[in-house]
Each structure stands twice: as structure tokens, then as C-alpha cells.
Design a protein that fits this description.
Layout: E1 2-4, E2 13-16, H1 18-26, H2 29-44, E3 54-60, E4 63-68, E5 73-80, E6 83-91, H3 92-97
Parallel strand pairs: 2-6
Antiparallel strand pairs: 1-3, 3-4, 4-5, 5-6
Length: 99
């Protein structure tokens, strides 16, 4: 279901979708506090160590990627040029069902 690696992807900007913003507000406070560090790491290197960057197979338009926030949470995003549009954030099962 996933393909590991970013294949030359460069991320210069991160834009949250409306659905991402709604889901973010429902996250536990400790997870909300971690996300700025995750975004900083993605801007430095789209394949930061420890985040488990994965490209989901079966999604071609748009290509969807995920990164692990913690053991139980991850987020999904699509890349348009050098912009990462954040799609969803939540527990692994929710993201795996609807990235």
C-alpha cells in the first residue's frame, strides 16, 4: 500500500486544507504541540528521519504522502509543485481509511 521515499520531492511551503484545520482542533494538546516540529522537519528535508515518509500507492492524481507524527498519529498531504497541501491528520486507522 505504501512506497517509501520521496523521489526528489522538495517542499517549500505547507498549506493546511479546511478539513485538516478541523481535524487539528480535535487532536490532543500534546499532538498539536508536536506538529510545528514535524512541519519544520518537512521543510528542511521531505524525508526526515524518524517520520516514516511514505507515498501511498493507488493515488496518482493527486499523489498522496503520509508521515508519522507519533506511534498512533500520522498526517497525509499532497504535493503540488513545492507546496505540501495538508489533507488529514489523525490516528493511523483513520488516515489509512481516508487519506
Amino acid at each position: 500500500m505504501t512506497q517509501i521515499g520521496s523521489g526528489g520531492v522538495v517542499i517549500k511551503t505547507i498549506t493546511p486544507s479546511t478539513s485538516f484545520q478541523r481535524q487539528f482542533k480535535k487532536l490532543p494538546q500534546d499532538i498539536q504541540k508536536i506538529l510545528p516540529d514535524v512541519f519544520r522537519d518537512l521543510l528542511k528535508n521531505p524525508r526526515p528521519s524518524g517520520l516514516g515518509f511514505e507515498k501511498l500507492k493507488g493515488y496518482k492524481k493527486p499523489n498522496i504522502y503520509t508521515v508519522h507524527i507519533t506511534g498512533n498519529y500520522k498526517l497525509s498531504f499532497e504535493i503540488n509543485g513545492s507546496d505540501a497541501k495538508l489533507r488529514c491528520v489523525g490516528n493511523h486507522n483513520d488516515i489509512d481509511r481516508r487519506p
